[in-house]
Amino acid sequence: MNRGLLLRFENLVQLHGACWQLRALSSRKVCGAQWKPVQLSAHPLGSLLLHPQLWPKHRLISAALSQCRHLATKEETKKKKKKVPQMRGEVEIRQKMTVEELAQAMGKDIDHIYEALLYTDINLDSVEPDSILREDHIKMIIQKSGMKYKSAKLKEEKERKNTDAVKRQVGNCSFLPPADPAVLTPRPPVVTILGHVDHGKTTLLDSLRKTQVASMEAGGITQHIGAFIVHMPSGEKITFLDTPGHAAFSAMRARGTNVTDIVILVVAAEDGVMQQTIESIQHAKNAGVPLILAINKCDKPEADPERVKKELLAHDVVCEEFGGDVQAVNISALKGENLMVLAEATVALAEMLELKADATGLVEGTVIESRKDKGKGPLTTAIIQRGTLRKGCVLVAGKTWAKVRFLFDENGKAMDEASPGIPVEIMGWKDSPSAGDEILEVESEQRAQEVVAWRTYVEQQEKMKEDLEVIEAKQKEHRLEYEKQQQKLAHLTWRQRKAVLYKANRHLMFSRPKERTEMDENTLSLIVKGDVDGSVEAILNILDSYDCEDECKLDIVYFGMGDISENDISLAESFNGVILGFSVKASESIKKLADKKGIKIKLHNVIYKLIEDLKDELNSRMPPTVVETTIGEASVLDTFSVTVGKNKIPVAGCRVHKGLLDRKMKFKLIRNRDVIWKGCLSSLKHHKDDVQVIKTGMDCGLSLDKNLEFSIGDEIICYEEKEVQQTTSWDPGF
């Protein structure tokens, strides 16, 4: 018996020793070594030699590996439960640290940071691990945690080298060399025709060019700038820019005067000075451009050219016959009268100005208009101001560049080159530049990419600065609101303050931000497409004047150039929006797709019709308003009550003095000019008979659907409620 117990105990000791041997071997990475006996001197039975032969080898290894697995699992569990090491001493801080970065620097978890933020004016609902903290908040959190802070050494950001492209000469700048007079050659004058809408600007240009531009314009109104060359019988060339007179295109008129040498101000003889006439005069003055007055429609019986000249005196436009320096020419653009006199006056003024340009060196110019063509891609109409533009030139404008592939004149014919003062359409742009952008030629495509990269970088820096200012303003506003709230709760204990704040913010606990799946019904989302950049700009300028957000919100989801595409349909479907197209087209397949998805496409060629359609769409998005229409009025002459069952019901004896009382309609009780009840009648009687209608002059007794006491002199009004569609109060200015 004792021997059996002794053998069992010996086996256990052997297993224990084998496990320790295997563990020692594995730690030394000597898996192939021979087993060695281990002396257990501490064992009470004395020295025992352990040999692997006393225990089956496979069972020893299995048991040992099991023990190792147990130990390894235990170590991993300890690592998982290992807490974030708490930092003692100073915490290194820097500007624009996030919540997560601060927690790592402090050796704390994120929950600790959130807990410390409870003592600040920050709204915790808006704080995420990647939210940026203000420096004063960072310092406060560290101090609340019983730590100290030190500012990290700022890494000096290497200043980026300015790689922008500039003109060879800007005005009279002393640091840039003036153009060599030997290379200056005469150039055609650039003339802009300005004036009020429908005063005959395009008809005048049409007569000069002997083409039918006016008949091609939608509604006879110029929709965007057209640049043309007019050849005079004497051999001179004049470059004309025809700008829109419509109120919406103010920016395009301003652009026209900025690249022009002479302004021809067209005023209708029967209308006189109008709103856009005054604006055109101001544009010319701002640009420092001389004027020539063209009084149009002088063939009409009601024409009064002298009145026009006198009206212009109030705007500092003094004609030569009144002692000024402005030439005035009476014309009829439709009949072609005195057009050569006007052209000669333009040539004479151009000779006085001595217009010359350098046709050598790198090209400089201005984008007059840009558009997208399906076959040709982005196209720009430009005026060359210096150098000679040829195929293969590398140009930069705004944040895009081009390697010129083709040049076209105003009639779409290919050109080999374009010299200063010549309008040209350029093909080869990577993207559409904005109208008004400066065109500069650079040495190579690599240089063009450097310029675009620099301009993009500058724009990003400016945007970041603006965003930071907005963020700081919002934080300041929130901090002031927080301080006011704290002052209101200053007299309460901390427990009472917690209770008040919980009640105030309880509704926010269950209203976390969710992904927006549908737009508010009272919001109109727009996708704006135009034929050219200037048209889109004009529409956006009009939409910027929208000031009725309380009636219906206006959200511009996307704007661009080109015909309506499938992407526009998908975007409109996502935002439940409407597509506005100006002088663009939608193919039959696009229209069918839009009908299938329930998307509205509104296409127009005249700007004011597009805005009228937009206003109608805004009206349809606005909720209807309820209008009360009075049907009859009656006065309470006496009061009494009747018993119905166990209840006494007040009854008013009335006389109708206006209209009629109809039991089907709604009623209201007015006492001392205050409405004290609205609802329906429970009974209406004439003598003892129940009636439906009581007419003017008849007496009646009535009771309300509410147990309300009457007073002699009360007014009973019978009215009808009708839902009426609201109309927007937005006035775009035309």
TrEMBL record:
Coiled-coil stretches noted in the UniProt entry, renumbered to this chain: 461-488
GO cellular component, one term: mitochondrion
An annotated Gene Ontology molecular function: GTP binding
Superkingdom of the source species: Eukaryota
PANTHER family: TRANSLATION INITIATION FACTOR IF-2, MITOCHONDRIAL, TRANSLATION INITIATION FACTOR IF-2-RELATED
Family as reported in the entry's similarity comment: Belongs to the TRAFAC class translation factor GTPase superfamily. Classic translation factor GTPase family. IF-2 subfamily.
The protein's role, per its UniProt record: One of the essential components for the initiation of protein synthesis. Protects formylmethionyl-tRNA from spontaneous hydrolysis and promotes its binding to the 30S ribosomal subunits. Also involved in the hydrolysis of GTP during the formation of the 70S ribosomal complex.
UniProt name for this protein: Translation initiation factor IF-2, mitochondrial
Organism expressing this protein natively: Certhia brachydactyla
